[in-house]
Write a structure and sequence with these properties.
Blueprint (H helix, E strand, L loop, with lengths): L1 H20 L1 H4 L6 H16 L7 H26 L4 H26 L6 H122 L18 E11 L5 E11 L17 H9 L2 E10 L4 H4 L9 E8 L6 H16 L11 E2 L19 E6 L6 H9 L15 H4 L4 E12 L7 E13 L10 E3 H5 L12 E7 L9 E4 L5 E6 L2 E9 L15 E4 L11 E8 L5 E10 L6 E9 L3 E12 L2 E2 L4 E5 L8 E9 L3 E11 L15 E3 L3 E7 L26 E7 L3 E3 L7 H26 L11 H13 L5
Parallel strand pairs: 1-10
Antiparallel strand pairs: 1-2, 2-8, 3-4, 3-7, 4-6, 5-6, 7-8, 9-14, 10-13, 11-14, 12-13, 15-16, 16-22, 17-21, 17-24, 18-19, 18-22, 20-21, 23-26, 24-25
Helix pairs in contact: 1-5, 3-5
Length: 805
């Protein structure tokens, strides 16, 4: 800025000198602003470029001509306006000089750029420094903001952790509350058990008194009989005449004995799931099949006892199952059962009308177990000719007293479990039945409950018989549905309860844990540990079990409760494939024809064995028995025995029984074609588009055993290994069920009747309503109202007193 000012002053002095030299010429001819500016520019250009060649003569000659022209124009104007004074001319000249200087300064400023000074450079450096500082401050602010965000996230994480800790504390509190409640319940149960013991003692006292009285009466009778015998001998010797003594009263029968046992078997599965099997056995030395009536019940449920005696039942087997047993993942179950409801009964040979008795029995059992067994009729009942042999004593060959039926669509719920638990001597108050909590049992992958009644032998010679009631409950807890995701199980996690005591009425109360695959504790850890170990032959294999005896207080420890814990250490081991396995499915397309395929697997490497296949198919699937094919390893496998009973529409189902020989390590396929029938519209279910269920096929077989089986059924063995009778040491009996089938049938459009009903009701309502309205309406003739002119005339007439129109 200072340099520019100096240059401006220098140019200003130069212009003053030029003006002073040319004042003599300018005072005669005044120049306008535009001309002076043009002249100034020419002089400046001439000074700035002195090196450019120019002719002074031409320049001096040209200037007077332009100035002369301009002077002539200005003079002409001034002559008209008046001649100015010298002062005015000088002022005008000064103004013109100032304007010239300003224009020259602007031109020099545009042509010669100003060189920056040190101050300006320092100012620029300071500005750059300030800019860098501002950028640093901005970066620091951004860093501070990021730190604040990180601190906020950390605070949120800490808050979440605090919430989790609070939730954990709440869970711990809830568990403590549950433990306190359980302790209270245990104390209440102990009080109840003490009261029950007192009641039982009070009840036993009169029975003891009666027994003593009976013993005294029997002793007196024996003494009397001895006296009569002595008198008879004396009379024979003295009088030589025989006098018959009076007949003695027959001795009263001894009181019947009953026994109750309960067991729980826990088997860790290779898939990480847990298989729990409850066994409750009640044996009563009573003759239900004789003429003598049974009236006094102690441990055996009275409801079942009355049913057995009234309907002359020899054996009764009923099961309710929810889910399908996955044989290839879980192995073979202790007691198999098909999905839904299954019922098969052997009647005594004294029954004359088996079908009528069967119908009444299903209705009674439907009421006892609160199930839909009353839907069993002739359309889903079959009479097998070779399958379902009696599991109790006696070789019955007349299969006309056998009836078998299934309801594959039956749903199992709490209504079925509650009456099942009421059949137990201790109910759900004590013993292993405390663990039977419905909300836990039905939140599982597989659940099955069953009741088996059969006659058994009391001694190895089978001189006397007893009636056995066996109640079983099998459940599989899934690792993923439990919501834990950990391979860790305990009684409390499975059943939400622990064991505090055994049933007071039970002679044996034990818990078995299968540790065969865990000899050195490598697979899982079991706590609390128990020194009791036992071995049993189950399903052709020798298994090792840890035993917890609930009748001994040492099993409960100091906490007075037993809560077994299984914690896995290693990954899943290899599971041996089951020797016998089966599958079934429906093939084909459309709603007219199809095929039923049954696959039977024999995984034994070198042994072939026979199997008996039973298949009951509803009547609305019309089988073409000529299309039946059986093949093994790509070759035909001709059955050695076939029994086929064709169906009758709406009366009975198809029944197919075959005896097949399964080659070693093979798959046998049984195929038969069928045609779907069109039902009446009243025979369809409420949800016909869901499909119709076909019951599971049943496969019975004697499978080769790895170890020698025990053929003595009267020895004391675990209950889970003594259900099926064994007659040979080299094989064991097994029953396998296939999947139920879901078949779609031709279904009409059930919305059409609704549309027809709506249309007909509308037509009838409109037609009948209009006709009824015409017939019942009363018509009246209304006179037309007078016009406006007539009304006005009548008003005027009324005022004038003239009669109206």
């Amino acid at each position: 800025m200072a340099a520019r000012r100096c240059l401006g002053l220098w140019f200003f002095l130069i212009t003053l000198c030029v003006v002073s030299t040319g004042a003599d010429v300018l005072h005669t001819t005044p120049v306008t602003g535009t001309e002076s500016s043009a002249a100034g520019t020419e002089t400046v250009v001439a000074r700035e470029q002195p090196e450019a060649p120019s002719d002074p003569g031409e320049h001096t000659a040209a200037e007077p001509t332009r100035e002369g022209e301009q002077n002539d124009r200005t003079r002409g104007g001034e002559q008209t306006r008046g001649q100015p004074t010298r002062e005015e001319e000088q002022e005008q000249e000064q103004e013109q000089e100032k304007t010239r200087e300003g224009e020259e300064l602007t031109r020099e400023g545009e042509q010669t750029p100003a060189q920056p000074t040190r101050e300006e450079e320092e100012e620029e450096e300071e500005q750059e420094q300030t800019r860098g500082e501002e950028e640093l401050t901005r970066e620091e602010e951004e860093l501070t903001r990021e730190e604040e965000e990180l601190t906020k996230e950390e605070e949120e994480l800490t808050a979440e952790e605090e919430e989790q800790t609070r939730e954990e504390e709440e869970l711990i509190r809830e568990e403590e509350e549950l433990t306190t409640e359980e302790e209270e319940l245990t104390t209440e149960e102990e009080e109840l058990t003490t009261e029950e013991e007192e009641l039982t003692r009070e009840e036993e006292e009169p029975t003891r008194k009666e027994e003593e009285e009976e013993q005294q009466t029997t002793a007196q009778q024996e003494e009397q009989t001895r006296r009569w015998e002595a008198t008879e001998l004396e009379e024979e010797h003295v009088h030589d005449a025989a006098v018959p003594p009076p007949a003695a009263d027959p001795p009263s029968p001894p009181p019947s004995k009953d026994d109750f046992q309960e067991e729980l078997v826990i088997r860790p599965l290779h898939s990480g799931d847990i298989y729990a099997s409850f066994q409750f056995r009640t044996v009563w030395d009573a003759d239900f099949m004789g003429d003598q009536k049974v009236s006094h019940y102690r441990l055996f449920p009275k409801s079942l006892g009355q049913v057995i005696t009234k309907f002359s039942v020899r054996e009764l087997h009923i099961s309710f199952t929810q889910g399908y047993w996955r044989t290839m993942q879980w192995g073979q179950p202790y007691l198999p059962s098909p999905p839904g409801a299954e019922l098969w009964v052997w009647f005594q040979d004294t029954v004359t009308d088996v079908d009528g008795t069967w119908k009444e029995l299903t209705n009674v059992l439907s009421g006892i177990f609160c199930a839909s067994l009353n839907f069993i009729d002739s359309t889903n009942t079959v009479q097998p000719s070779a399958s379902f042999k009696p599991l109790g004593i006696g070789n019955v060959t007349d299969h006309s007293f056998l009836r078998y039926a299934t309801l594959p669509r039956e749903i199992v719920c709490t209504e079925n479990l509650t009456p099942w638990k009421k059949l137990l001597p201790c109910g759900s108050k004590a013993g292993l039945s405390v663990l039977l909590k419905s909300e836990k049992l039905f939140h599982s992958t597989f659940h099955s409950q069953a009741v088996h009644v059969r006659p058994v032998c009391q001694d190895p010679q089978c001189r006397t018989t007893s009636m056995e009631l066996r109640q079983t409950l099998n459940v599989v807890f899934d690792l993923h549905t439990s919501g834990q995701g950990k391979r860790e199980w305990s009684l409390f996690k499975m059943f939400s309860r622990t064991l505090t005591e055994g049933c007071p009425l039970a002679s044996s109360s034990k818990v078995y844990v299968d540790v065969t695959d865990n000899p050195q504790g490598e697979q899982f850890e079991l706590s609390p540990a128990t020194p009791l170990l036992t071995q049993a032959v189950v399903l052709g294999d020798r298994r090792t079990y840890s035993v917890y005896d609930l009748t001994q207080q040492a099993s409960f420890g100091s906490s007075r409760s037993l809560n077994m814990l299984l914690r896995w250490k290693a990954a899943d081991g290899e599971m041996l494939r089951p020797l016998l396995h089966s599958e079934r499915y429906v093939a084909g397309y459309g709603l007219q024809a199809g095929e039923i395929h049954t696959l039977i697997y024999n995984h034994h490497p070198y042994r072939a064995f026979p199997v008996l296949l039973l298949s009951a198919v509803p009547w609305y699937l019309r089988l073409y028995i000529h299309t039946l094919t059986v093949s093994s390893k790509g070759k035909d496998n001709r059955p050695s025995y076939i029994h086929y009973q064709p169906s009758k529409d709406r009366e009975r189902p198809h029944l197919l029984e075959m005896l097949l020989q399964l080659p070693p390590n093979s798959v046998t396929e049984v195929t038969v074609e069928f045609e779907r029938a069109l039902l009446k519209w009243t025979e369809y279910t409420p949800d016909p588009n869901h499909g119709f269920y076909v019951g599971s096929s049943v496969i019975s077989a004697l499978v080769p055993s790895v170890v020698a089986m025990d053929t003595n059924s009267t020895l004391d063995r675990p209950l889970f290994s003594s259900f099926f009778p064994c007659k040979e040491e080299a094989s064991y009996f097994m029953r396998v069920y296939t999947e139920p089938l879901l078949v779609n049938l031709p279904t009409p459009d059930f919305s059409m009747p609704y549309n027809v009903i709506c249309l007909t009701c509308t037509v009838v309502a409109v037609g009948y309503g209009s006709l009824y309205n015409l017939l019942t309406r009363t018509f009246q003739v209304d006179e037309p109202s007078p016009g406006l002119a007539k009304r006005i005339a009548n008003v005027i007439r009324r005022f004038r007193g003239v009669p109206l129109l």
